[in-house]
């Protein structure tokens, strides 16, 4: 930690896939930067359009101007709208920073941009790749004696960032998934004919999102019968066996699967369609994981089988966001400003559970981003049941506090109002 | 209209596909039946499990008992929970009544069930097929001198029931679609690379649901760029041309399509997969309409193309129902009881717009169900734009009032609480 007071401008960007609360973190950064506490130090706050990719091309907007009213106070109405708006309002990119040794020009151009605007604070909201950007950039500026504090702010619906108890974006996606799958369970229960409904949920390597489909089980609601995560090898025979057992008890079965489930040999269940090969039933598959299972179960049981991909709405369902998630996303943004002004750099703001508190309570802590950038936090083995076809109550008790609370959404004529940068 | 006071029990059933508000209509029927106004006439209210199919097997529950508290008053807490629960709480069926001449036994069995419990009022909540049931049954009991009043209560997300201005279930589905598609539009706008996102919306023959995706356009929000309904013949070449024009202006294009769009020759766009034939590009399609368009646009433009099926959540999204829809669904149920007690039979309760009122206002009117049973209300030609690739503002002004208002949902731990009959 450096101890000198660093006065200069700040820039904030958003990167990677959007979430329902990524703009809440942006709002937290802006509000803190404009606050009486920090505005003497953070002279100006800029926003990168489309992350580092737009920034290097000079595409930047002045957030201080946009969010300050004529009377000099912060425009809370605009920040409130920004907070309830899904998907990266500044735009995003998927740019992975090059190796400074291999592409020094890129970094020289970046430094020139920083100097142009006296940027001394750099905030990057994103997942693993964005933390890699923060790690590389903080090393580079230190090595090249440009004093700038670099802070990563966590964002990922996948909840796979290590170091942090959970990441903003996950709680809202989990709440949306739990709610929609519960509705699907109810919808599928109305008929008496045997039927299997397979719901495909995002998550290529980590099953946190799929696990959340089971939440209604510990909340007195209606959960899917089977839950398959990518953390356990998937077996078609065991899947059929699980269905056979359930059919003895009920006609309607609902199954939640991660898009990333794999067979024991490592092949993705939904991969057949991409490689163009035919499956064991001689069909060519063009769809994803749930569609593959649909075809397989239809061939095995001859009953009605349906597949549903929850798809993009999972990550942008701001109309039903978790208030807990929104609050934490906002607070993480503010904690980023506070940490940077206090001298932190090369770190990510982690959200940690206060284990000593009565009930659920969190605090924010800057962690070395180098240790986070390339890790991945998967669902631990103890969170899967013995048969690996569901998650444990312990798993659900971990997730449950993250989906609590409903924000008051500002509506117009029946749909949520979104904020847009012109 | 008969004028004698008919004292006896009532039975209510739900049929066809579920909606977000079908239980609100059920709650409206129950509340009215138990009210001081009608409980002297309607001696008991029963519920059919799984519609007429369960009823004929004697599967019936006593709703009067379930919804009356120990002190004799109506259990409003239970009715509130029932109202916010999606999907037919009594269970549903897809049974189409046989022709009484061809299967007189079926009807004799039904009459025996009615007599067993002195059932004199019959309420059936459903869409076209359910209205056919109400029509056949009302004719049959009249012909066979069993005095029973038969009332159809409208329910369909498709909004294709003739006679009524709109049907309960449509407003909530429209609100959910408008909200989710707006979120998808925002999600897709974050990157700068050319991309097409195709959202498939329910509606085999009528495009009302797909039209609702465009609602944000008249509500100051963000709507899809193209909207294709089944009411207009679909042309792949015109679709490509529409995309080409849009790509001149923006990189991200969002398209809303009805699952039921057809080529000029009458073939469903998504049909190729079912027949197993190969498409013009030599690929075999296994998926639906949006998937077919995804493959076609990918081959034509070589850019990122993604398809999203909104699927079942469209019809069971009670967590974000329209308060207007919920209120009308409930009132239609109550209007059914009032009409039946007043002597109406063989009718469906229609919801009609009071054109003389300031702003949006409706009233309920029993219409001859015979005229409704086999009709279908499609999106009129005047509601499509000239190029048939979007809907008009007039169309959206018709839909807009139906999605207004958000109910206060009773939650537990972050998910909505659902009512269940044990």
State the shape of chain A: elongated
Determine the fraction of residues in helical runs of chain A and give it as a percent range: 25-40%
Distance between the termini of chain A: 38 Å
What string gives the helices and strands of chain A in order?
EHEHEHHHEHEHEHEHEHHEHHEEHEE
Number of helices of chain A: 14
Average predicted local confidence, pLDDT of chain A:
94
Give the quaternary arrangement of the chains: homodimer
What is the CATH architecture descriptor of the largest domain in chain A? 3-Layer(aba) Sandwich
Strand content of chain A: 15-25%
The CATH topology of the largest domain in chain A is what?
Rossmann fold
Using CB atoms under 8 Å apart, which protein chain pair has the greatest interface? A-B, 72 and 72 residues
CATH domain class name of the largest domain in chain A: Alpha Beta
Rg of chain A, rounded, reads 23 Å
Q: Structural class from helices and strands of chain A?
A: alpha/beta
Strand order of the largest sheet of chain A: 3-2-1-4-5-10-11
Number of domains of chain A: 2
Commentary on this structure:
Two copies of one chain form a homodimer. Chain A is elongated. Chain A has a seven-stranded mixed β-sheet with strand order 3-2-1-4-5-10-11, sandwiched between helices. Helices cover 34% and strands 17% of the residues of chain A. In chain A, strand 4, helix 6 (128-143) and strand 5 (149-154) form a beta-alpha-beta unit. The first copy, chain A, folds into two domains: 8-169 and 317-375 and 407-416, 3-Layer(aba) Sandwich (Rossmann fold); 171-316, 3-Layer(aba) Sandwich (Rossmann fold), CATH 3.40.50. With 422 residues, the first copy, chain A, is α/β, with parallel strands linked by helices. In chain A, helix 1 packs antiparallel against helix 4 (76-84) and helix 1 crosses helix 13 (323-341). At the A-B interface, helix 7, strand 9, helix 12, strand 12 and strand 13 of A face helix 7, strand 9, helix 12, strand 12 and strand 13 of B.
